[in-house]
Amino acid sequence: MAYETEENKTDAFDEVVRQARENGKDASGEPPSGVTDLKIVLWGNGFQVGDDGEFRALADPANKQFIEELKEGVVPQELRKTYPKGVSVGLEDKRG
Fold it and tell me: Domain count of the chain?
């Protein structure tokens, strides 16, 4: 999937947000001990992981797998490797 146009960029994040809303409907209870809470901030042309994370451009091919996994509603493999005890991912939509 190419991310060169603004339309494609919006579509990619729309699916991520839709998937997050669906997954959030069933969420209940406290996360297990050791699980890290992490926020992904969505911008119009990219995203960042955590409040102080580096901006990552949507058009950068290096970010394609990360975005595809979010669209599928799963925690990206990159984060699973970084947080082996588990990670609870929240999204903050700042596209508007």
Answer: 1
What is the rounded CA–CA span in Å between residue 10 and residue 4?
A: 11
**Crossing angle of helices 6-24 and 64-71, rounded to 10°:** 40
- Spatial distance between the Cα atoms of 61 and 74, rounded to a whole number of angstroms: 19
34 residue type, one letter:
G
Distance CA 46, CA 6 (A): 11
Torsional sign, CA 40, 41, 42, 43: negative
Boundaries of domain holding 48:
6-27+34-93
Span 31-69, pLDDT tens digits: 667 888 899 999 999 999 998 999 999 999 999 999 999
